[in-house]
What does this fold into?
Amino acid sequence: MQDTSFRMEIFNNYENKIFWTISNFCNFRCPYCYIDKTQKPEYITEHHTPEHIANCFNKTGKTWLIMLAGGEPFIMPKFLPLMQELTKNHHIQISTNLCSDDVFKFPEYVTPEKVMVISASLHVPEREKVDPKFEKFIEKCLFLQDKGFRVVVNYVTWPPLLTRIEKDFKYLKSKGIKNMTAFTFLGEYDGKPYPESYTEDEIKLISKLSMYKREEDILRCSASYKGIKCEAGHRYFTTELDGTVYKCRSIPTAMGNILDGSFKPDTKNRKCTADTCIDTYMAEFILDHNKRGVFGFLKKKQVKI
It folds into this structure.
């Protein structure tokens, strides 16, 4: 049984949440990736010092959960010093493919108490080219687990992998990986659009292996919460590499820039106006009805950590 409750319990402790794409470059070339592989690598630390970036968050007067993604964060220059500065006053989540050996230095810069979760992305097509039995990937996951960090392995359900996914999950579990989840593939494969083209059996398989409540909403293309109040724009935001803050990916309303002091959050939660939610994985944490105990989640007072 996977520990499917810890992320909800932890996440609800954070009043202010921001998802930040801090780089546009990755060392992997996954066939399903949305990143433009012809782009020149660009990193936020090329334009601002770690101290300046952290101070910009401090000046908001809020304590943040900063969810960091790329590209691949660990190959960004000054990434570890940036994490050290950010976690002096805030908490982080990192999405990473765990290829960089800087992972082994991470505990020297950040304590486990400052990290909500490390999302370790297992991209099978690229990982097998450099790590056929996932040995290096597993070594880093276990290292972080042993140091006290919460690690979740994210397995993208690219259609050619569906015949092996259960075997891969069993293998990783046997090696000591505690938490794994299946992520829905969004895109085109063999001329077919996904997730629309998943079969009923494939939907059931992916849903069974996922630890996220709304995975089936994505699989069935029914992720719509229009008319429901949401924290997006008030306590949850998405941010581009340059620091421009948006309400969310579904409603990309600019709300200023956190790195130049022009960021202005809304004063309250508002009803969603999007026909389809792109931030579905966040929905279980930022929709108002979850805080009222709907879908079996216990009502829990939010506190600043």
User: Anything to note?
Assistant: Confidence is low (pLDDT under 50) at residues 289-305. The two ends are 29 Å apart (CA to CA). The chain is about 25% helix and 20% strand. Residues 6-296 form a domain with the TIM Barrel fold (CATH 3.20.20.70).
